[in-house]
Design a protein that fits this description.
With about 90 residues, the protein is mainly alpha-helical. Helices cover about 65% and strands about 0% of the residues. It is globular and about 30 Å long.
Length: about 90
């Protein structure tokens, strides 16, 4: 397995490329600190990027930072209400 890199996401905007790389780094390698740092960088470029707030919420929850995770999920939902369906627990997951 290899990490996603810029060649994989050439058609994306720069901030979306950073989000993809941060997600890959955290979820595939388990490097939460680097994944969060990349999402932070993407949010400097575009603070209204709901996907970055959403993924940041998951990474904060993974680290046990539930208060931060809730804040990040709430911000993602304010920016993009349709993202709520990705956050809600579904019966088939139980």
């Amino acid at each position: 397995m290899r990490l996603i890199d810029d060649d994989d996401v050439k058609g994306f905007d720069p901030h979306r490329r950073i989000v993809c790389c941060g997600h890959s780094r955290a979820h595939l390698v388990g490097d939460l600190d680097r994944g969060i740092a990349l999402l932070d960088k993407a949010l400097v470029l575009n603070p209204n990027l709901a996907a970055a707030w959403f993924l940041r919420g998951f990474l904060r929850a993974w680290r046990g930072e539930s208060d931060n995770a809730i804040e990040h999920f709430a911000r993602a939902m304010r920016l993009s209400p349709s993202i709520r369906s990705s956050i809600e627990c579904r019966p088939e997951w139980l």
